[in-house]
Amino acid sequence: MNADGPDEAVAMLGARLREVRLRRRETLDSLAGRSGLTKSFLSKLERGHASVSMGALLRICAALDVQLAEIMNGPEGRLVRAGALTQVALGGEGLTEYQLTPADEHRLQVLLSEIKPGGGSGQEYYTFPVEVEFVHVIRGQLTVSLEDEVYELAAGDSLTFVSVPHAFHNPGPDPATVMWVVTPALPTNQPRKSS
């Protein structure tokens, strides 16, 4: 996994958001007003000079009327080799994330997160438009905060929950490696390919 990855992923995310905004003939001013974020921040994000919390990213997607999955860069094909992982940016700080399931898989979605100490989804709670989320800590520690509950997970621990407002971070001194499974996969507005 590439140590320089997060910057590349943030740049790709910013470029995709800018592309969607321009395609929809949306100005930074109007997007700022509808997302509750500043024009300056959005400009920095589009240029790859700022990271965004998962909650704020979901608000931007809602303001642009685009599904999060449509700005991700999922892998093609059924086989995903370890040396060819596809990096995605879902917001947050101190994260490098990879999608392990193909972009056209709609039944479930599996993500692998490398989380630096102190890194995570950000302060703002967020909710994915899915039914169930599963998280498994492969290495390190992870704190998952749900609406009224906080779970401290260590290597080998797993947590399954109905998708409710939540946030997560790595409270430990070492990087954490975490696998996430969501079902169904994050939705898209694009038509599904017939098999």
TrEMBL record:
Domain called HTH cro/C1-type: residue spans: 17-71
PROSITE patterns: HTH_CROC1
One Pfam match: HTH_26
Domain of life, source organism: Bacteria
Alphabetical keyword list: DNA-binding
CDD domains per the UniProt record, alphabetical: cupin_XRE_C, HTH_XRE
Keyword Heme: no
UniProt name for this protein: XRE family transcriptional regulator
Organism: Dactylosporangium fulvum
